[in-house]
Amino acid sequence: MTVRTTWTGPKELLEQAELILTELIDPPVDAASLVRLDDASVEAADAPWGLHAYTEDPIPANALGMLPQELGPPVREDLEDRDWVAHALEGLGVVKSGCFVLFGSHDAEKASKMDGIKLQIEANRAFGTGHHPTTHACLDMLSDMAGLPVKKILDLGTGSGVLAIAARKLWPDAVIVATDIDEPSIPIAAENAEINDAPGIIWEVAEGTASAAIADNAPFDLVIANILAGPLIELAPDIRAVTADGGRVILAGLLDEQSDRVEAAYADQGLDLAEKRGTDRWPLLHLKEGRA
């Protein structure tokens, strides 16, 4: 049996809930799908949004308590036997992020007709299909950095591996290390790399920068960390330590109200804000190591 739990409300709150359900609770939900709901009584621009979460068992009360309380109680349904997770993932569609076109195998034909570097990323429990604003912003940032002479790249919290794979497409000769604290994510990311013909990425399960692969290849010209504000602040000294002089850091996964604290933590380490982009709710911080 599959349980579908549904919330309705503002898109920004549902995006926050989606990140919590797929990244913070243990175990994460099997799949989450953010969709615009059909409602003939409202104008399209004001149409409500819905978040469907699919699990084998009901989501525990303590996990539900982590979600934005403004959303109110969800609606729970016990669904008939069918692959509802696959059904949810098929609804994600094709995403254009910077110079990249992200798609699942079910949308391969549609993606083939679009201009851009194609990345086939299957949605699953490993975070990073390009549908979340944080992943989208990172891909957009990488696209704009494509001409920079980057030789070593670190992707902390790689999830599905999408950012490391995108980096390989832009810098085919760079050393790329990609790590994640979530052990099941690493084989998923490695499989995605193989599907996308992105060879030579060094994958490793690691907590923060405590990694043999990171130690062996540091310092890095570019560090990418699309995780959460708390870990980003905690890791500021460690990320600074593995960033090359004159290097760049891309931080995402933080909320707008957390941006000042994250920026300050890195300014204390000599990493200054070069650019802020993303959405009003989900900013991206591009930091520059300015030490000579």
From TrEMBL:
InterPro entries from the UniProt entry: Ribosomal_L11_MeTrfase_PrmA, SAM-dependent_MTases_sf
A molecular-function term among this protein's GO annotations: methyltransferase activity
Q: Give one Pfam family, short name only.
A: PrmA
Q: Which CDD domains match?
A: AdoMet_MTases (cd02440)
State the UniProt keywords alphabetically: Methyltransferase, Ribonucleoprotein, Ribosomal protein, Transferase
Query: GO annotations under biological process?
Result: methylation
Recorded GO CC terms: ribosome
Please give the superkingdom of this protein's source.
Bacteria
The molecule here is called 50S ribosomal protein L11 methyltransferase
**Species for this entry:** Parvularcula lutaonensis
